[in-house]
Amino acid sequence: MPLRRTAAVIAGSALVLAAAACGDDPAPGTPRAATAEEPVLVFASSADPAILDPAFHSDGESSRVTSQIFETLVITEPGGTGVAPGLAESWKVSEDADTYTFTLRPGVRFHDGEPLTAAAVCANFERWYNFTGLAQSDSVSYYWVTVFRGFAKNESGTLRKSLYGGCAAPDDRTVELRLTEPSAAVLSALTLSSFGIASPRALKAYRADEVAGTADSPRFTGTFGTRHPIGTGPFRFAGWIRGDRLELVRNDDYWGEKAKLGKIVFRPIEKAADRARALLAGSVHAFDYADPADLEALKRAGAQVLERASFNMGYLGFSQKTEIMRNRRIRQAIAHAIDRDRIVGTRYGPGAKVAQAFMPDSMWGHSEDFAGYGHDVAEARRLVAESGVSEPTLEFCYPSGVSRAYMVDPEGNFRLMKADLEAAGFTVRPRTLPWSPGYLDAARAGDCPLYLLGWNSDFGDPDNFLGTFFQSFSNQWSFRNEKIFEVLDRAEKEPEQAVREKLYRRANALLADFVPGVPYAQSPSFSAAARNVTGWTPSPVLPSDSFARVALR
User: Fold this and answer.
1) What is the CA radius of gyration of the chain?
2) 183, 148 Cβ separation under 8 angstroms
3) Which residues of 336-370 are buried (b: 16+ CB within 10 A; e: fewer)?
């Protein structure tokens, strides 16, 4: 499966793509097209990115692409979950953990030729902190809200005082990031691709902050996130035609070791089985989220099958924006109705197991509190009767156009859960939406009473699971539980690891009692590649894979 024959065809379309993507906007730093002689990797993604401005995305397919274009101050160590140098070659943390001082690498430039300076880094933090209007919605600036909590002028009562306390640049290579209170988790959080550093010049020129529509359905009317994403990474943006392909080309002015590939083409292919067929037919080189049912066929055909360690969790979420979901007996009934063992046993592959917490069991601070919600139809019916809700009806949302390690086949999971709920006396009204756009926006806005989602860890800290979900009010879950909020606040601030671990165990117990949703699966994921692909080491932290070291032999 050499796929060499695809290079000339793809390279021939590069200029057309770039023209289609860029329109009439000026394009400082526009990359040159790859030639037919340079290696081209074709990667089958499960969906198009939602947006290429890292500040405005929260989905894996967007992050997979933006991680090649933008870089963060610190990164997740390759193959692990620790923190390693990124744009910052070193850092220091103050004794009270409220000031982080970073020393930037010398000689780094953005794709538009502008130098990376401490002032440019601070301009990015100030941009995020000063978002207004729709940009403050957690359906738009999701990770800023979950990590830094609030803005310079909060426009919603659901937002809290910001953790961000300011950014100073004493010289061109020194960044002082100040917090309003201590945080033991913020350094790991800064590995998130959403904190990728963008060219301040490009942000302004391409109107990055223009957001229209509604919080439920935002529209990015500037062109930075669709036509001109400009960072410092090993690849530059070349063009994008939604539903067809997105192209990146090597950044030959990169500050570090140059990428081995001349170009990457991302092709959206919704179904895992279709991605496998494309690989076997020789039309793509690699893909993620392989269906476990396809693994043996891929191996027999000579493809590489790569296992990505389990660092994820799939859950059935409840939005308490809807009255029926504010009834704890109903939530408990749903938890007992779902046969989690059957779902994992029939819909997941080797190494999968039932999730017993809103974090994987490989994460410190894990506990087994949800084990008490075994499959028990009689108990579910009893709880429904006690709830006072006659003929309970649930609107159940599930996505199309996506597969994930925690949810390889969303429709298959939905059908099994629907049957379980109906057996317990619920009426289920299905509602399916395309993953992007539509589903994520609806779920994040709390407009799906019952929904399927999950989490691939972004960084190696329990705060990335429990803090992201439950440390404060979010529209997605739409509940207020001050006891849970307070324990998670303490856990983030606490500098002692042993004390933090106890606090996260306590939070897990409180969550099992409150039942904001039902964790049901954790699973390793499987990637596949043609035999001539080298240098791809899937990370347990998704999606932090760098393609800079990937090559075709």
Assistant:
1) 23
2) no
3) bbbbbeebbeebbbeebbbbbbbbbeebebbbebb
Q: Looking at 103-107, 135-139, 162-166, which range is the least confident one?
A: 135-139
- Backbone angles phi and psi of 489, in degrees to 5: -60, -45
- pLDDT (tens digit, 9 = 90+) per residue, 73-91? 999 887 777 789 999 999 9
- pLDDT, mean of residues 296-306: 95
- Of the candidates 421, 420, 428, 358, the residue with the CA atom closest to the CA atom of residue 397: 428
Q: How many helices (H) and strands (E) does the chain have?
A: 17, 22
Cβ–Cβ under 8 Å, residues 550 and 536: yes
Q: CA 527 to CA 295: how far, in whole Å?
A: 9
* Burial annotation 119-130 (CB, 10 A radius, 16+ → b, else e): ebbbbbbebbbe
What is the 3 state secondary structure string of 176-220? EEEECCCCCCHHHHCCCHHHCECCHHHHHHCCCCCEEECCCCEEE
Name the one residue in this structure whose structure tokens are 């140098």.
85
- Please state the φ and ψ torsions of residue 133, each to the nearest 5 degrees: 60, -135
> What percent helix, strand, coil does the chain show, rounded to 5?
35, 20, 45
pLDDT 10s digits, 463-496? 989 998 999 899 999 999 999 999 999 998 887 8
Token reading at 546: 């760098």
- Per the CB < 8 A criterion, the answer to whether 73 and 57 are in contact is no
How do strand 427-434 and strand 83-85 relate by DSSP bridges?
unpaired
In this structure, the strands spanning 286-287 and 40-45 are parallel
3-state secondary structure at position 18: helix
Q: Which residue from 393, 478, 407 is spatially nearest to 443, judged by alpha carbons?
A: 478
Contact status, residue 102 vs residue 177, Cβ threshold 8 Å:
yes
